[in-house]
Amino acid sequence: DDDESIVGIEASFEDEKISEEFIIISDNDVPELTVNEVPPFINESSINISGSISEQVNYKIFVNDVSAFEGDGTEFAGVVSNLEEGKNIVKIVITDLAGWSITEQVGINVDTQPPSVEAEFEKGEEYYQNRAETDITGSTEPGSEVSLYVYRPLEADFTPDFKEPWDKVTADELGNFTFKDVDFESPPITLEILKPQEVPAELLDVSIPKLNNLESANSFNYYVFIIAEDTSGKNGYWRGDVTINTCYSSNFDFRI
Predict the structure, then answer these.
(1) What is the largest CA-CA distance in the chain?
(2) How far apart are CA 91 and CA 105, in angstroms?
(3) Number of helices and strands (H, E) in the chain?
(4) Could you tell me what percent of the chain has a pLDDT over 90?
(5) Average pLDDT for the chain
(6) Fewest 10 Å CB contacts: which of 110, 159, 211, 213?
(7) Residue 1: its pLDDT value, please?
(8) How far apart are CA 145 and CA 143, in angstroms?
């Protein structure tokens, strides 16, 4: 059992006796390690990591299998740096005086960059009334929440508020996403609150220009925005335009 024992040895040589006593410490328990909480996402390339151990040990800290720092004691604390963008593995290895050793791993996700967004209209950028429908596919950071907005010019300039997305999907583990059967002329009706936590700063000053002679126009431009918000709250966006041609003319002619 775990204990401190006194061991005595006695030897006789003819008429003379020799004795010696020494201490043996028995350690049958593996040390216990407690790592202080680490945030799931950070936006820097370094972080402080610390913890405590139930007994005196030698500890070694590795980041992505590269040594970060080491020492002896019942507590440890230090800075792990050179973290890579994405998931990093911090490994803590402790070994006590009896040779018992345990290893614990902590995942740290570094996200310093906003997500980039790429998208395309499956059926192109030009449509006719009552047939202005297509899938929109794209890619961004895996796991991001992706919101779709469509705006049509009015009789006066206006700034979109991005409060009511047409649809919202989640990018898969590869970062791919799809908005199915988007009808540019028919906004969806939903009671669900879909707006992102934050609108990209570059979109706050976007203005949709007015359309002159709205009633006699032969075509309309629709402005399409996609905002991606990653799991750390950062966002990025994509913008595309489509043209929708009318099927009539105020001059009583027709076009093919």
Answers:
(1) 136
(2) 4
(3) 0, 16
(4) 53
(5) 85
(6) 213
(7) 52
(8) 7
pLDDT at residue 47 in the model: 92
Q: Which two tokens stand for residue 124?
A: 């192109």
> What mean pLDDT comes out for the span 220-246?
92
Kindly report the number of other CB atoms within 10 A of residue 218's CB atom: 13
pLDDT at residue 248 is higher than 80? no
Q: What is the pLDDT of residue 189?
A: 72
Any idea how long the chain is?
Answer: 256
Handedness of CA 133, 210, 197, 234 (dihedral sign): positive
Structure tokens at 115: 């997500």
Residue 185's Cα: distance from chain center in Å? 34
Look up residue 201 and give its amino acid: A
SS3 of the chain: helix, strand, coil, percent, to 5: 0, 55, 45
* Alpha-carbon dihedral 173, 174, 180, 184, rounded to 10 degrees: 120
Rounded Cα–Cα distance for residues 215 and 154 (Å): 11
- The model's pLDDT over 110-161, given as tens digits with 9 standing for 90+, comes to 988 899 999 999 999 999 988 999 999 999 999 999 999 999 888 888 999 8
> Alpha-carbon distance 102 to 31, whole Å?
8
**Helix (H/G/I), strand (E/B), else coil: 57:** strand
Whose tokens are 């040589």? That residue is: 13
What amino acid is encoded at 5 in this protein? S
Q: Which residue has 């990018």 as its token pair? A: 171
Q: Is the pLDDT of residue 69 over 80?
A: yes
DSSP labels for 100-161? -EEEEEEEEEE--SPPP-EEEETT-SEEETT--EEEEEEE-STT-EEEEEEE---SS-B---
Task: List the single range of 18-22, 172-176, 193-197, 228-232 with lowest mean pLDDT.
Answer: 193-197
